[in-house]
# Entry
Amino acid sequence: MALPAESQTRVPSQENLLLDYVHRLEKHREGRKVVHIHLSNLKSFNRREQHVRAAASTFEPLVKELLGQLFTLKNSDLFFVYKSELQHQVETMVQKIKFLFSDDPLVEDESEANPFASWFDAELHFNDIIQLVQGLADVEKAKAKPTMRARMDTRAALKAKQEMGEPLTPDVLGRVEDALSRADLSNLVRRQFICTLDEQMVPEPEFSELFISITNLRETLIPGVNLLANRWLFQHLTVTLDRRMLAMLTKTDSLTISGNISFNINVATILSDDFQNFDNNITAARRGNMILELQKEDMFTDLGAFLFAREFVQAKGYRVCLDGMTYEAMEMLDRERLGTDLVKLIWNPEMIDGGEETHQQVRRLVEHTGPENVVLCRVDNREAVDFGQTVGINLFQGRHIENLIAEDTRRRELLRLKRRIERSEEDEGFYEDDEEMIE
Amino acid sequence: MAENSAAFSIIGQKNAEEEKLLLNHLHRIGVNPQGWYGVHAHLSGLQPGNQQPKYIRIATQAFDVVTNNFDSTLYLMSNFDMILISKETPIESIDEALSNVRSLFSEDPLTEGEEGSFEDRFTTWYDLSQNSDLTALDADVKFLSEEAEQKRVQEEEERTSSLINQMDGAPLTARNLTVISEKLQRVQINGLVQYQSAIVIEPDMKGRLLFNEHFISMSDLQRRIAPDTNLFGNPWLFSYLTELLDKRLLSVIAARDFSVTRDAVSLNMNISTVLSREFQTFHRMLGENAKNVLIELQMVDVLSDLSTFHYAKDSLVDNGYRVILDGLNPLSLQFFDPSKLSVDYVKIAWGREFKADTTQTKVSEVKEIVMRLGKDQVILGRVDSEEAIKWALSLGIQRFQGHYVDTIADAMYVKGIIGDR
# Structure
């Protein structure tokens, strides 16, 4: 299945992440200090997003060097944990931030009862810290409003129609299928990498997922139609997309594929002649590089067929990934029993907002599934990666990872450029010397 | 292999061609049987759900390595049994092929007995250089050949018989779906609504009605609006049709006078329907009587979007409805734990897997799940025999539905235990 519409972005909430971090700090509190900067007490006109961002960026050099960890809370407070030898540097930085808000009463009338920043020694004041952080997390949890879920009420339907087009009907579906069977879809194929990340957040690709972009498909092929409006009709459409993808993968000239790849497929497609043809046309060695991604609802539509198909493809050397999982679904479905090699867990900020209990739950599920078998997907911000890492996940996929890859590529290119410039400068120097000599 | 290449081009063909070819082959072997042997894989013993041409075709590929590299020929019988005839072929390579076939059907009771063990019902080996073995296999194949011929004749008769309602015909496609869904919006639905009772058997063996499930008879509907199309052939397009049917059913049920009906009613609905305007209308007309209505949601529907399920379930419960999780069977229970969904009832379809011939571990797993759910939450559906009820009662399950239960419910109705429906 192609990736459905992008998940909604939300204001990052770090309270629970901080709580989690502080819990882990317990073992390493020696030589650590904490400063809590009370930006929440600033006047509201001083507490705009850009102000808080500017304040937070002060700590960036230390964060980049991995010398400290910064948390920006929902109420704008900053929480910075650092190594004690940096005390002097951190004090200077806090002073800098204070200077940013020098016209605010918080700074002008600073008192012991109402400080700009509170300082803690993790070794001596650990209990104070944990109480404070727990309090902040509790407040945030109480404030969290229940999220609005997708409801097919008239307003939502109208809005969807305006934004996405007319809903897909059987009639249109027929036309779409015809169009799909003729169209060249190779320019709609998108690729996203599934990566491990090192401590510097440099991504290392493990495999890449190939999928057909539904948004682009809609725009180029059938403008004005919302392909996702009816779940069952869309699901049916994916069977057609499967076939086209298999055809493209068979013709290596239409898609350049390197490395390990994964792609979506329905159980019914695996049992069809199209897959037989595909399988006959690829080398045995290539099968070991391929991961077939199956949706949980497809598996359970005919469990017998799934079990048969899984056994069939795994015996041939393919790997199988259970796609579209939420942490709640992971609680109900066992990867090991289903016999899939990998599981894709969809990132959802609710996992953070659920508090310590949910963190423990997700950590336990990851542990049970085997951390090396879990991919956190639809990762669209840093928060997702941070959360994933705290619960033991090593593999990530999503827009944020694509950005990291782009960043890394840029960095490498700059480095190369820099080297080239250095080299040419050296060479130029040489020439100049030479010329002088000739003169 | 010359004979091999043309083999099983048409899977499930019942004219016993392969049987005849095999008998010929055995006859030729009889002239000089030295070094020949045969293996009979009894795939006809698979569960009916696993006896599908597409599975069998894939399973035959497991023997490709053997038939391509050695003097071996595979014959596929009309009943899906496979017979491999080999000469001077390493046994290990055949073992490997057989083990691959076994693992394809690893959830099937047929493959449970260990290879070569006393309980192994999967394969029979024949040393064809022994006259007794050759005769035995020859007799077996003759039997299969006759059986196939009989079956062919019988099916021919059935096909011509107008009494048999067969769910076959052209598959449902996006093309014919348009016409069918338009007809579906117009067809008179009242006459197609049927019901089936679910009952509770109390510890003193007295029965009481739990609810009457109202549904639209699909076979009648198919006859009415799409006699040449198999509505069940495509699961996703069929689900789309059920969304349309939900709304029609709601309008029929809402028109009923609930004030005179004391018995509870259950309705199978898509989650999308529960969140639709039609359901709101239904709810307005129902008013206080929502407490007498149970909504059945399908497991696949639930699984595909858990957060929408929770939203729908919560709003149903808040409005007085009870919720049933439907679409489970012994197989799916081995992979899916519904106890965390907190619904009022979970309906599990009775199946052969519950019967005594399966391994004890699987039965005890099901017991464990029933315990976790709470035995009062389980409804055993598709109950077709007294055996099923006895088995379930031994686990503490007291809620039943199915053809066998219909007869009990009828008796209860006659005795006045159940009111009008």
